[in-house]
């Protein structure tokens, strides 16, 4: 059985696993787990939908099956970090340099879809102090 406890509102939640009744204390090793990342399910669903859309579009652009798409990675967080749509478009076009079909419609649609997303980030580690 797992229980969730929190000592104060600023501490991270921890999960402690309790031993079943009848187990000796000498056999018990206390195991701790903690939830390290909290993501909004709605945001994750948007990301998954975008990734599926990208794969579908790339299979059309490269005229092949999903497994045959050239090795390339369109990093949505990297695109979100870029200051302008021009920078984003240049990055994506650079990734698609070996595609023989026109990519402008794909790039335009991708940039439009990326605008509605938020950057996913992991919370800082316990030993890292956040700046005020």
Sheet with the most strands, sense and barrel status = 3 strands, antiparallel
Number of domains: 2
Look at the structure and give the mean pLDDT. 77
**Count of individual helical segments:** 4
Distance between the termini: 38 Å
Per CATH, the architecture of the largest domain is Orthogonal Bundle
Radius of gyration: 22 Å
The assembly state of the depicted protein chains is single chain
Structural class: mainly alpha
Order of helices and strands: EEEHHHH
- The gross shape turns out to be elongated
Proportion of residues in extended strands: 5-15%
Q: How is this structure best summarized?
A:
38% of the residues lie in helices and 8% in strands. It has 4 helices and 3 strands.
Can you offer a commentary on this structure?
- Keywords: Acetylation, Coiled coil, Phosphoprotein, Protein phosphatase inhibitor.
- Pfam families: PP1_inhibitor (PF05361).
- With 132 residues, the protein is mainly α.
- The protein folds into two domains: 33 residues, no CATH class; 75 residues, DNA polymerase, domain 1, CATH 1.10.150.
- 38% of the residues lie in helices and 8% in strands.
- The chain contains four helices and three strands.
- The chain has a three-stranded antiparallel sheet with strand order 1-2-3, with no helix packed on it.
- Helix 3 packs across helix 4.
- The longest helix is centred in the middle third of the chain and has 21 residues.
- It is elongated.
- The N terminus is likely disordered.
